[in-house]
């Protein structure tokens, strides 16, 4: 379920439909996207936490979504971080560039490694083969605990995906 519209269709109705699709073996896993804590709780109440494989949400160094991330981790629900490069905005951040230079990697690899080291699945996008290869190489990057703490300081609640039908974010 990509965007919840609970004012139009109750969360329970579409997560139950997804669970039925899973029971019918039309899918192996089901996930949600852009669900807040309360919407995720409603989904859990409807089908059980074990049925929700992931919540795909905007997460990057400038929007760390801490309340939701903590809740999802507590529930054992995988976090899929979309826009982990914030439409490329993180690439020009001086702290990220400094960390990248210290590790002799790209700024994109720093941002992706920050997400990966927190256990997130990341969904960077690129149409350039060289960027795709560099993004994949982020799997081998190990940021220090100091780097991770430094990157945590970049949170500014800068949400980039916020259409007029978005929920009241946590």
Overview of the structural elements:
With 170 residues, the protein is of the alpha/beta class. It has a domain at 80-154. The protein has seven helices and four strands. Strands 1-2-3-4 form a four-stranded parallel beta sheet. Strand 2 (54-58), helix 3 (66-75) and strand 3 form a beta-alpha-beta unit. Helix 1 (11-23) packs across helix 2 (37-47) and helix 4 packs across helix 5 (107-116). The radius of gyration is 17 Å and the shape is elongated.
List keywords for this structure.
9% strand; 4-stranded parallel β-sheet; alpha/beta; single chain; elongated; 170 residues
What is the topological layout?
Layout: H1 11-23, E1 31-33, H2 37-47, E2 54-58, H3 66-75, E3 78-82, H4 94-103, H5 107-116, E4 121-123, H6 129-137, H7 145-152
Parallel strand pairs: 1-2, 2-3, 3-4
Helix pairs in contact: 1-2, 4-5
| Uncertain regions spanning at least 5 consecutive residues | none
Please give the share of residues in helix.
40-55%
Rg calculated over all Cα atoms: 17 Å
Mean pLDDT over the residues: 94
Q: Helix segment count?
A: 7
> In this structure, how is the largest beta sheet organized?
4 strands, parallel
Instruction: Order the strands across the largest sheet as they lie in space.
Output: 1-2-3-4
Work out the strand percent: 5-15%
